[in-house]
Records
---
Amino acid sequence: MPKMKTKSSCKKRFKVSANGRVIRANAGKRHGMIKRTNKFIRDARGTTTMDKADEKIVKPMMPYAR
């Protein structure tokens, strides 16, 4: 049987933690920073875990993730 392919968009955007949760970047940091508050920019730093409902959508696209 051939290898299953990981969705290219998912491998660029998501990682899976040791516990099996999907890790993603915070939204709203691509452009338009001048109109955002400093508090928003600070709070949007780093990564966060994805909601369970959204994980169910993303995980099938990443067959070799835990």
Note: Residues 8-59 form a domain with the Factor Xa Inhibitor fold (CATH 4.10.410.60).
---
Amino acid sequence: MIFDTDIFIWAQKGNQKAAEIMEKSEDRFLSIISHMELMQCADNKKQHKFVKDFLSSFGFTVLPLTENIGHRAAIYVEEYTLSSGLRSADALIAATAVENNLILVSSNRKHFRAIKELKFKHFTP
């Protein structure tokens, strides 16, 4: 499974369900976009270290951007921004999931519902 940024934020806030869904997943992935978003949310180097240690201890693999992911995300933005409000970061995360044939876990169903080929698992905090 690939986890949207919000799942990490829920876990960091102490949400047990978020921690459990990550713990139960055999393979844990996140997009480089989610990694960057998590690092941007940190206020200092101590929090940067916490995020890195958390990802490492849970065995997350950070998936890089590729040409195909970029192309697919651009198509998603073109197709869904006006109708669904899809933003570029979410388009890149969704494209990463689709290109890697992974289920995306997120509590933000609204952000991703328009993308038909996306395998999506809704998380309810």
Note: DSSP finds seven helices and five strands in the chain.
---
Amino acid sequence: MAQRVTEILVGAGVVAVAAGFLVYAAGATGLGQTASDASRYEAVFRSVQGVNVGTDVRLGGVKVGSVTALDLNPENFRAVASFTVDRVLNLPEDTAVIVASEGLLGGNYIEVQPGGSPFNLEPGATITDTQGAVSLVSLLLKFVSGDSSAE
């Protein structure tokens, strides 16, 4: 009987830890964030390599949103990233969006760089001042081969 009580307690502990991980994951990915908490924007890139749905959107190194969708525009063959940003942030019209890397072994994220315009973007606006992902492999190949045509 004592062994059965021990098994029940251990099972309850495992379920509690699993529930804790689910709550943490939901908070970290913004799963519980409602539409009223965030403004949605789009950005057009040449390449969004390394960015997926759920990727962080950061401003000044602080997570302020996440990527909600990635699509390809068949007319101009550009990647369109839809993302959310906390509603309390009013992004200026000249905001730039960059696919940045956390380092050599880190993942990519979307970095928002606000400009200095006195006018703000409306939610749902498309940001065209973008810089896509830089391929580390192509940079290394250019360095090794001595190719200076990218200057």
Note: Residues 65 and 85 are 4 Å apart (CA to CA).
